[in-house]
Amino acid sequence: MSFNGKYQLESQENFESFMKAIGLPDELIQKGKDIKSISEIEETGDNFKVTVTTGSKVLVNTFTIGKEAELETVTGEKVKAVVQRDGNTLTVSLKGIQSVTELVDGNTLVNTMTLGGIVYKRTNKRM
């Protein structure tokens, strides 16, 4: 299955506790918790461009599977990391955060980020 497409956030679990744990200010947490972000994924072979728009904030990351890339985190920090792919699953570790993005079926994209004992889960539907 191809990741290509636009996905809108449908539901999320543990947003506030996860964002606090990574150091996002309370003001930004309160502003961001009810915004339905849109993720656009462009996949060309092993090359990916992921654009996440949350209100007025736009986060763009480009990477090639299995190769080191500089990725921007939710807090705006740039981190070098390697994204791996196993079928319909993309995994990457960013500063102690394990991120797993899975295309569950043709229309559902689930992203789970784990830091310590906090698991932040985002479910997105294809638009």
TrEMBL record:
Per the UniProt entry, what species is this protein from, by scientific name? Cottoperca gobio
Key words of the record? Cytoplasm, Lipid-binding, Transport
Q: Does the keyword Transmembrane apply?
A: no
Q: Tell me which residues make up the Cytosolic fatty-acid binding proteins domain.
A: 5-22
InterPro entries per UniProt? Calycin (IPR012674), Fatty_acid-bd (IPR000463), ILBP (IPR031259)
Could you tell me where this protein is found in the cell?
Cytoplasm
Q: Into which family does the record put it? A: Belongs to the calycin superfamily. Fatty-acid binding protein (FABP) family.
One MF term in GO for this entry?
lipid binding
Q: Gene3D superfamilies under this entry?
A: 2.40.128.20
Keyword field contains NADP: no
Q: Which GO terms describe its cellular component?
A: cytoplasm
Which SUPFAM superfamilies does the protein's record reference?
A: Lipocalins (SSF50814)
Tell me where it mainly resides.
cytoplasm
Q: Quote the gene name from the UniProt entry.
A: LOC115013665
User: At the top level of its lineage, which domain of life is listed?
Assistant: Eukaryota
Name the UniProt record assigns to this protein: Fatty acid-binding protein, liver-type
